[in-house]
Amino acid sequence: MARIVYALSGQGRGHASRVLAIARELRQRGHELLFCGGGTACDVLQASGETVLPVPSLRQVLHGNRMQLLATLRANATTLRKLRTLLDELTEKLSAFRPHLLITDFEALTPRAAERLGVPVLSFNHQQIVTETRYPLPLRYWLDAALACLAIRLIAPKRPLHVLLTSFFFPPLRRPERTTLIPPIIRSEIQQLRPVSGEAILVYVNQPEGVGHLPQVLAQLAVPFILYNLPPPEDAARYPNLIFKKPSLDEFLHDLACAQAVVCTAGFTLISEALYLGKPLLVMPNRGIFEQTLNALFLERDGMGMAVYDRLLRPEDVRRFLENLPYYRSRLWAYPKRPGNEAALACIEQLLLRLERRAYRGKRVQTLHENILRFSV
Question: Looking at the structure, do residues 160 and 197 belong to the same domain, yes or no?
Answer without folding.
Answer: no
